[in-house]
Design a protein that fits this description.
It contains three helices and no strands. The protein has 78 residues and is an all-alpha fold.
Length: 78
């Protein structure tokens, strides 16, 4: 994976339960908001980070939707 957060690879996201995915989604959305705010005020240092966070959000939404459709399964509670 060239762009994105190292801890949010699709293989890693498969191991998260739905609550943890929702928490990661919330955290990523907050980071995206902060990055957009920095961009608007001219304080953003890494413009590539915007793209990476947007892709992370898309990955999380994809995992959640695939679980709804039954394409992927949530990890079983042990």
């Amino acid at each position: 994976m060239a762009i994105g957060t190292k801890g949010l690879a699709p293989d890693e996201l498969d191991t998260f339960d739905d609550e943890k995915l929702a928490a990661e989604l919330k955290k990523a959305k907050e980071e995206l908001f902060n990055l957009r705010f920095q961009s608007a005020t001219g304080q953003l240092e890494s413009h590539g980070r915007l793209k990476a966070v947007r892709r992370d959000i898309a990955r999380i939404y994809t995992i959640l939707r695939e679980r709804e459709l039954g394409i992927r399964t949530a990890p079983s509670a042990e």
